[in-house]
Amino acid sequence: MTRPIPKQGILQSEEVIGEELFLYDDRTGAVHTLNGGAAMVWLLCDGDRDVEEISHEISSASNLPLEQVRLQVFETVAQFDALGLLEG
């Protein structure tokens, strides 16, 4: 999970709707609703960035302390992985 990337078959809503992003797992039919923070993390999980780079980007954009953001990003990515949304 060094560079998180969505599994094939995970479709997302075209835009954030009311601070939520919706994911649809084409394989299972499950729908996942992400709040604004989780949506930001999801959108940065592109396989090019690792958790540290994602944390830095969010910390810079939100003016939140890096340590706080890093913990939240790590936990969020771990949840995505537990839900089967990420490759590997």
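The above is record 1. Record 2 follows with the same two-line structure.
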Amino acid sequence: MTQSADTRRGLYGLQLDRPPFRGLVPREQAALLRSWGVNAVFGGYAEPAFAEAAREAGIKLYAEFACFAGAGWWERLPDCRPITATGEALAPEEGYHGVNPSHPVVRQERLEALGALLRAHPLDGVWLDFIRWPCHWETPAPRLEQTSFDADTVRRFARDRGLALDVGAPAQSAALLWARHRDEWRAWRCERITDWVAQARQALDAVRPGAELGFFAVPWQPAERGGALIEVLGQDHAALAPYVDLFSPMVYHAMCGQPVSWIAEVVRELAARTGRPVWPILQSVDHPRPLPAGEYERALAAALGCPASAGALVFTLEAALTPDKLAATRRQFGGR
């Protein structure tokens, strides 16, 4: 497939110490990527010699930045673990440990870590990940739980909205908020995400002007699943658009139980809703079932062939290195 010069053809999860890159000098590593048609990678930026070689080869270097997730947060700051409407602490799910995005220490430390990342490496951009209220969504039937109803979070909401609330047990607070302040609660939760992204935008522009801010978006439409994109996750993509250069919906069709055609549908809708370029990230991994190379290639073609798409990003490079999937990647990326 012939691609225009500005089509983004990316791989996520570059590890230079693993085959087929291990043992190659940086220019050879960059040349190998270019031979596959790749012009963007997530990873490798911590190796200065490779970073220089990649830029000489016309490959952009990006970093993924996890915002509000991680078991380490639960261990160090137990009060950042979200509390559900029943008063239970949020349970981990398939290794996912969601974190309360309104927790002031988490918010501040993640901003500081983002600034440190940008100062340490000459990145072309950073993509925000786990940038939502908690939900393990990569499944056909995700568990949609409302959070966080701990006293501190409810007090923060009341303070910000100028409300005098009688803060009680989590179940009581949830009932009160849903009965009397549901619209305000929903809006406030979205604002916690949007405001943090706005601060991330300021940090990026201050430290590395010209770098791109990307956003790994949950690939749901606003009316889908009872409005869970806003109601549960707090991702208001239209409100985020002024601060984001590119949206990357995580169109993992096999994980989500969707057909390949769904990829282009998500891209078109998100581009229309945000007015921003959309660079979808699609799966090469064999989860939750084996993903045949032919189906993987159709997914690549769907992303690259959609007029609203800025290209295709593959999750992950390691899974795409099987001979048949690598051949499919090279064909779709215009490699040689």
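The longest strand covers residues 60-66.
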